[in-house]
Specification:
Distance between the termini: 38 Å
Order of helices and strands: HHEHHEHEHEEEHEHEHEEHHHHEHH
Number of helices: 15
Radius of gyration: 20 Å
Structural class: alpha/beta
Largest sheet: 5 strands, mixed
Number of strands: 11
Length: 345
């Protein structure tokens, strides 16, 4: 069970001030610099970075270790997590400080915590992919020919992940709802296995699992995520850590953006790492690397509005039980100016 975050009164009052006052002003760079300098002496000696089983280029490249070592900070990689929901559970338990998830897990987490200030906060967005790295797939010999044929069928996927958003939106396109199918709720590897073993009629999955199955199993992709998963996800942080250690978050994001830019220019370099770390076939690894996006982007009003539309869709479809306000997970202008480096646009 996820333990709810229960901030002390002083922390709550601090957050109220951030929401009601600091977020209203655009501060000068000199004031931001003062904030960063004033928080140099921190109690944090370890930064806990989460990674998912699907791979993490920052971890693979050991991109942040030198910078943090120079600051006297130990980097502790926590994982691998099967998917975003499991990662966020660890973050709420204080085991993770920064992680990388899709658009859906923060929404489900916030919806499950009525009356609480979300401990999960949005740090940056990720550049959207073209959607080809996800799909709703069936076996090539299946009688299911189109998304509408999924009505009443068993579909395996990770509940509370962007796989659920892809499925729900695809069903909506053909006049169906999640309630019209049989949910086989499993982690991504388990969902893949259930599909391969014919324990589910269809599977909603993504790379690298999808790319590997495309090579080894005759399948038909009924609908990829093109035009659906437009946000592609976020770097998220643990509120208490971010507010107390903005300079450490800034260092992490700066290095993550650098390595992401390099990977987009040379996906074959990252493909080699995937071959070594995940034991992928070289052709599969290259497909995974070329279908991913890596660069980051600032949290803007447009991104907040789009994430709110995703949350509103889930509520309208009765997938989450209450309407939420995404802005509760948004930091003040002051903190964003402190944590976002100049190389993230």
């Amino acid at each position: 069970m996820i333990k709810p975050f229960q901030p002390q009164r002083r922390t709550v009052l601090k957050h109220i001030v951030q929401y009601s006052v600091l977020g209203l002003f655009t501060l000068s760079s000199s004031l931001v610099g003062s904030l960063v300098q004033s928080t140099q002496a921190q109690t944090a000696k370890v930064i806990n970075l989460a990674y998912q089983a699907s791979g993490d280029i920052v971890k693979s490249k050991k991109a942040v270790e030198p910078r943090f070592k120079a600051l006297g900070i130990t980097v502790n990689w926590v994982g691998p997590f099967a998917a975003g929901p499991q990662l966020i559970k660890a973050l709420n338990e204080g085991k993770v400080d920064i992680g990388n998830v899709g658009e859906t897990p923060p929404i489900f987490d916030q919806a499950a915590r009525p009356g609480l200030i979300p401990e999960v906060v949005y740090l940056t967005g990720r550049t959207p992919s073209d959607g080809t790295n996800q799909g709703i797939v069936v076996k090539a010999n299946s009688s299911i020919q189109k998304v509408a044929d999924l009505k009443g069928k068993k579909i395996a996927f990770q509940v509370g992940s962007n796989a659920q958003y892809l499925l729900a939106k695809a069903l909506q396109e053909v006049g169906l709802k999640i309630s019209d199918i049989q949910i086989v709720a499993l982690t991504p590897p388990e969902a893949r296995d259930a599909f391969i073993q014919d324990k589910a009629d269809a599977w909603v999955g993504g790379d690298p699992l999808l790319a590997a199955v495309e090579k080894t199993t005759p399948i038909r992709n009924l609908r990829n995520a093109k035009g659906i998963n437009t946000l592609n996800g976020f770097y998220i942080g643990r509120r208490a850590f971010v507010t107390q250690n903005p300079q450490l978050v800034r260092v992490f994001l700066e290095e993550a953006e650098k390595v992401g830019e390099q990977a987009e220019k040379n996906p074959s370099d990252y493909a080699k790492l995937l071959v070594d770390e995940q034991k992928l076939d070289p052709s599969v690894a290259l497909k995974v690397a070329s279908r991913r996006t890596y660069k980051l982007r600032k949290i803007t009003p447009a991104i907040i509005a789009e994430q709110q539309r995703v949350a509103d869709f889930y509520f309208a479809e009765k997938i989450i039980s209450r309407k939420i306000d995404i802005k509760e997970g948004i930091l003040s202008d002051l903190l964003y100016k402190a944590i976002i480096p100049d190389n993230i646009k």
